[in-house]
Design a protein that fits this description.
This protein is mainly α and about 150 residues long. It has one domain. About 70% of the residues lie in helices and about 0% in strands. Helix 2 packs across helix 3 and helix 5 crosses helix 6.
Length: about 150
């Protein structure tokens, strides 16, 4: 049985515009790509060219944004996460490995790299998307996971 999802084109377009705008502002103001894995690594492993306060502000914005959204909109933030902790741990390790091996994540390659017409980002994003499609298909139709 397929899992029902909502079609939200206006909310999705608004979210995409906000993400794109934030990426442009970060690039204009600091010359940095808005790749979450790179920003998080600069925060956790600061180097000589690192701006840890800037990275901390960016990550804090990711955490604080839902806390601001809920009272302003009157709607809760809905996030579905598996209760299967071993599965979540393996998934997290695979995503982390993929971000390191792929020299970036979906936000860095998919949002910033594609907009800069980076060939490496086109390849990385195609691999991300193909893998995501395959995993969802297998989870929903082969193993029957929700």
């Amino acid at each position: 049985m397929p899992i029902e999802t909502q079609f939200t084109p206006l909310a999705s377009a608004a979210g995409g515009a906000l993400i794109g705008g934030a990426a442009v502002l970060l690039m204009l103001m600091s010359g940095r790509i808005a790749g979450i894995s790179g920003i998080l690594s600069r925060l956790l492993l600061p180097g000589s060219d690192s701006k840890p306060l800037q990275a901390l502000a960016f990550v804090a914005g990711l955490v604080v944004a839902p806390l601001i959204w809920v009272p302003l909109s009157g709607h809760g933030v809905v996030q579905t996460v598996t209760e299967n902790l071993p599965l979540a741990a393996v998934a997290g390790l695979l995503v982390g490995f993929g971000a390191v091996y792929g020299s970036g994540c979906t936000s860095g390659h998919g949002v910033c790299g594609l907009s800069r017409l980076s060939p490496r980002s086109f390849v990385a994003t195609a691999i991300f998307m193909a893998t995501a499609i395959a995993v969802v298909f297998i989870a929903r139709h082969v193993i029957g996971a929700a």
